[in-house]
Amino acid sequence: MIRNIFVLLVLFFSSHSYGQLGGRSTYQFLNLVSSPRQAALGGKSITNVDYDVTQPLYNPSTINSEMSNQVSANFTSYLGGISYGNAAYARTFKKEKEIDGETKATANTFHVGINYIGYGDFDGFDEQGNATSTFSGNEAAISVGYAKQLGNSDFYGGANVKFISSTLEQYSSLGVATDLAILYSNTEKAFQATLVVRNLGTQITTYNEVQESLPLEVNLGFSQELENVPIRWHFTLENLQQWPIAFSNPSRVLTDLEGNQTQEEIGILNEVIRHTIIGAELFPRRGFNVRIGYNFRRAEELRIVEQRNFSGLSAGFSLKLNRFRFSYTHAKYTSAANSNFFGVQIDLQ
User: Fold this and answer.
1) Which helix (H) or strand (E) holds 36?
2) According to the 3-state scheme, what is the secondary structure of 208-221?
3) Alpha-carbon gap, residue 290 to 278, rounded angstroms
4) Is CATH 2.40.160.40 what the domain over 2-347 is classified as, yes or no?
């Protein structure tokens, strides 16, 4: 089973090596940060295998029985007046069946979630510049996910199926996509490693009879809780479907005294770093924990030359009170724009 999944992923990568990033595909909201916890850990942490019922929206292989009867809601006041959020719920269904004359209990956990983004109101103008009417835009995706242990191994496979709706002014589109993931979880060493392939799918109906691709994303993540220190570190390699990912910034062109210009040079190490996200959680299993992360690509692409603005840095915390867990994160983008993430998770047990 594991070998078959590996072969399938290799074939997939070889046939999709061109990749997709922002501006080259539709439904870009599918790859936005899913929760305050994920935002605090750099934006794309994918190895939270615990109570966090929002995590399967990004990585379905993390679905587990500890999420059963947990419901979450998250909201973000994003850049430029854009607002987006999500909600998620998981439920474990237990069943007894007879195997070799013995009655054994089996458990299956299913996950459902919804992502929504609203772009606000816009002033409309015709081709002559005359004001028309205001219009708005919004997009949403409903997902259903399931994960299963692969035999008696430490490997788990998971999948999400997503139904997507998008409305932009008078244009609308429907789509369908799936996320595929495999997770290795060593509970003895508190170590997890996972590979996630997101947004494999297609448009069912297009905006204006033009077929567009979906925002394919491939991420590889690792995390581990330290043995004698209450810290869990997170390490993520994002957008592995495209290499290189960096581009020369025209604002960083160097001009000498003779007027000769030198473009920004991006080396191999710089390319690797731009795929990297790091994060850490202090007291990850307790009622109060603190989180911090750093997104190298965001930091490099949004930094201002000769000015320190801490782009790429994010920090947050969560607090559990009885059945409620509240989370907050502040993420630094530029000197002029930051984002705040709010979330609540409720234990319905």
Assistant:
1) helix 36-40
2) CCCCCCCCCEEEEE
3) 15
4) yes
The per-residue pLDDT for range 25-67, each reduced to its tens digit, is 899 999 999 999 999 999 999 999 999 999 999 999 999 999 9
Alpha-carbon radius of gyration of the chain: 22
What is the C-alpha to C-alpha distance for residues 39 and 278, in angstroms, rounded to an integer?
Answer: 11
- What is the pTM (predicted TM-score) of this model? 0.85
Tens digit of pLDDT for each residue in 273-320? 999 999 999 998 899 999 999 999 998 888 776 666 788 999 999 999
Within 10 A of 175 (CB to CB), how many other CB atoms are there?
Answer: 23
Q: Which residues pair with 328 in a beta bridge?
A: 317, 342
Across the strands, what pairs with 117? 84, 139
Are the C-beta atoms of 180 and 218 separated by less than 8 Å? no
- Domain spans in the chain, listed from the N-terminal domain onward: 2-347
- Say if strands 155-168 and 131-149 run parallel, antiparallel, or are unpaired: antiparallel
96, 78 Cβ separation under 8 angstroms: no
